[in-house]
Amino acid sequence: MDRDYLKVGVITSTHGVHGEVKVYPTTDEPERFRDLKTVTLYLNGKEKQVTVDSVKFFKKQVILGFEEIKDMDSAYALRNSEIRIPRSEGIELGENEFFIGDIIGLTVIDESGKELGKVSDIITTAANDVYEVKRTDGSALMIPAIHDCILSVDTESGVIKVHLLPGLEDL
């Protein structure tokens, strides 16, 4: 994904007959959708900028209406589109907080400097996030994103230094 943008949601389906869409939020702050004026929809390498004209919440989804989309067929064509915003409109992060898109793809090394692989996914659990690290042999290593394991994250150099707790490599 383009590092100038942040993905804040994915359109999952239509809602009603007037062009609204259901969005699965990929942000920890779904309320942020209330403040969005325009967003970029991204699907199959194509971008389309649209103006947000309504925001509602239903269960764990956000229902958006766009000025440019006023019928169900047009809304249906947007399914699976990523909703992106400029990085400059992202929420302010606290110390040791990162956007998921900035972590995926980083190289993971252990305390001795040995390369373990690259972060391929981040799994959110009730207790903490877990970094899935794809090793060069194709296997996966799961590392909990906790202070005992994550020693440093340097997005500029593209490296995460970790301490592997006993037994983590055996899972």
UniProtKB/TrEMBL annotation:
Write down the InterPro entries for this protein, in alphabetical order.
Answer: PRC_barrel-like_sf (IPR011033), PRC_RimM (IPR056792), RimM (IPR011961), RimM_N (IPR002676), RimM_N_sf (IPR036976), Transl_B-barrel_sf (IPR009000)
Name the Gene Ontology biological process terms: ribosomal small subunit biogenesis; rRNA processing
Source taxon at top rank: Bacteria
All copies of the Ribosome maturation factor RimM PRC barrel domain together span 102-165
Q: Where is the RimM N-terminal domain?
A: 8-88
User: Mind telling me which Pfam families this protein's record contains?
Assistant: PRC_RimM (PF24986), RimM (PF01782)
Q: Which GO terms describe its cellular component?
A: cytoplasm; ribosome
Give one GO molecular function term.
Answer: ribosome binding
Summarize the subunit comment: Binds ribosomal protein uS19.
Function recorded in the entry: An accessory protein needed during the final step in the assembly of 30S ribosomal subunit, possibly for assembly of the head region. Essential for efficient processing of 16S rRNA. May be needed both before and after RbfA during the maturation of 16S rRNA. It has affinity for free ribosomal 30S subunits but not for 70S ribosomes.
Q: What is this protein called?
A: Ribosome maturation factor RimM
**What organism does the record attribute this protein to?**
Candidatus Weimeria bifida
Q: Print the organism lineage.
A: Bacteria, Bacillati, Bacillota, Clostridia, Lachnospirales
